[in-house]
Amino acid sequence: MRFIDKLRHRWHEADSLLCVGLDPEPSRIPRHLHGDPDAVFAFCRAIVDATASYVCAFKPQIAHFAAVGAESTLERLIAHIHAAHPSIPVILDSKRGDIGSTAQHYAREAFQRYAADAVTVNPYLGQDSIQPFLDHADKGVIVLCRTSNPGSGEFQDLLIDGLPLYRHVARRVAREWNDHGNCALVVGATWPEELAQVRSDVGDMPLLVPGIGAQGGDVAAVLRNGAAADRTGLILSSSRAILHASDGDDFAQAAADAARLQRDAINQAR
Amino acid sequence: MRFIDKLRHRWHEADSLLCVGLDPEPSRIPRHLHGDPDAVFAFCRAIVDATASYVCAFKPQIAHFAAVGAESTLERLIAHIHAAHPSIPVILDSKRGDIGSTAQHYAREAFQRYAADAVTVNPYLGQDSIQPFLDHADKGVIVLCRTSNPGSGEFQDLLIDGLPLYRHVARRVAREWNDHGNCALVVGATWPEELAQVRSDVGDMPLLVPGIGAQGGDVAAVLRNGAAADRTGLILSSSRAILHASDGDDFAQAAADAARLQRDAINQAR
C-alpha cells in the first residue's frame, strides 16, 4: 500500500495522530535489561508492542543506531513492526540529502535495506537531489521545512520576496515536487504560527510535527493551526516523553499509558 | 593532529590539492575481484594505496556503503588509511544534519565510530544543529554551501538582501560558526563564479570542491577563482574519473596514473 494511503487508513483505524519516535538512548535503557546483549532491540520492541494501539506511525531515528554500529538492530526492529503491526507505517528519520547517484544509494538505504514506508530528507540541495526518493511513488518523502530546534530560524526564516525561506520550501514541495502525491513536510510543534502558514501553503499535505513531548510544543495550538480541513493531516511525534516515561521494570506499561494519554489529549483538542 | 593542520601539512608534503572520493559502485568493481567476498574493501584499498602519493585527502562517501549494509567495510577502509597513510586526512562525506541529542549521535558516528578527521554537514537547520560537530575542535566540519548538482540553485541562489542564500551560509560559517577555526565549505567545481564569491567571503578557509572529474568542472577556472592567497586552500575532489579509470585488471595502476595526471594538471594551473 502507498505510504499516504496507509497513513490515512491508520489515522482513522486507530483514531490517532500520535507517532512514537524511536530514539533509544543506551544510557537510559532500564537497568533490568542491561544484562541482555540485545537490550536496545528488546527495549524498542517492548515500546512498539505496548504503544502500537495508540499510534498512527512509528519513527525510528537512524543516528541513535548508527552511532553504536547497531544497524542490524534497526533492520530487525522495522521488520518486527511490519510483521506484528502491518497497518502502521514506519518513517525512517534520517534527514538525508545528497546528489545524483549518491541520492540513489540513500533511497536504497531507506526503502530497500530498511524497508521504511517513508523517509525524512533535507531540501537544501534542491529537487534533483530528492528526485531519487520522489520516484518511489509508493513511499513517503518528508521534507524538512521549519524544524523544531531553537536555532531553526537562522536560515529558514530569511526573507525572500517577503516570504521566509521555509515557506518557499513548502510551496516548492507542494507545487513542483509532489507529482506522485507522496510528499509531506516537517514543521516543529514549537512553532505554531509557522505551522499555520505552512498549512495555508500546502492544502491537506501531511505534516510531520516533532516536539510535542519533551520539547514542550503546545498540542492545542498545533491542532488549531496545523490540522487539515478534515481534522487529520498531522503526524505528531513524541519520543523521550514516551520512551522514558519510566526507567524502571514497568517502562513498557508506563510508555503505553503515556501514549494513550497523549493520543487522548490530541483528540480532545481536535 | 587537528584536521586543519593535518590538511595544511599534507598540501605541502604531497604538493597536491587533489582529493580522491571513495564512492564505490558495486556494479563497476573490476570483474576479476567478483569472486572475492570482500571485493569492495579490496577494490577501495587498492585505489587508496595506488593513489596515496598524489592526494591531500581521501573522501569516502557513506551512502555507497550503507545502501548495502557494508558499514564494517567502511570502518576497515578508514582504519587502513590511518594505518598505512597516517599523514592523509580522511573526510567522511555524509552530509548529516539534525538537532540536539541526535546531532551528538551523528558526531559520534563520524568521529568515534569511523574515526574520520572531518565530516560534511548540511546547514539548513542552523548553527545549533552543527554545534555538536563544531565542539570537536580537532575535527573538520565541512558545511554545504553551493553544491555541484545542476539544481543546486533552487534554494541556494534565492536572494536575501541582495545576496544569495549560499553567501549568507558562507558568511555565517566564517563569522559565527568558526570559533575553533575548524570549519570549511563545500562549493562545486561546476560553479566557478560562485566559488570566487565564496572565496571573497571567507578569507583563507578551506573549500572542498567536488566535481572536477566526471562532473566536468574546469580546473583552471576553479584554481583562478577558488585558491587562497598562498595558492592552497582547496580540496579538489574527483571520484569516478579515478576509481573507474579502467575496469580491467590494471584498475589500480590506471587510478594512480589518473590521479597523478590530475594532480599535475591542478599544479600547472596554480
Indicate the radius of gyration of chain A in whole angstroms: 18 Å
Annotation field: number of helices of chain A: 12
Distance between the termini of chain A: 27 Å
Q: On the 0-100 scale, what is the average pLDDT of chain A? A: 96
Strand order of the largest sheet of chain A: 2-1-10-9-8-5-4-3
Largest interface: A-B, 52 and 51 residues
Q: What spatial form of chain A do the alpha-carbon principal axes imply?
A: globular
Features:
homodimer; 270 residues; alpha/beta; TIM Barrel; eight-stranded parallel β-sheet; two-stranded antiparallel sheet; 12 helices; 16% strand
Report on the structure:
Chain A is α/β, with parallel strands linked by helices. The first copy, chain A, has a single domain, classed as Aldolase class I (TIM Barrel), CATH 3.20.20.70. Chain A is 46% helix and 16% strand. In chain A, the strands form 2 sheets. Chain A has an 8-stranded parallel sheet with strand order 2-1-10-9-8-5-4-3. A two-stranded antiparallel ribbon of chain A has the order 6-7. The interface between A and B is large, with 52 and 51 residues.
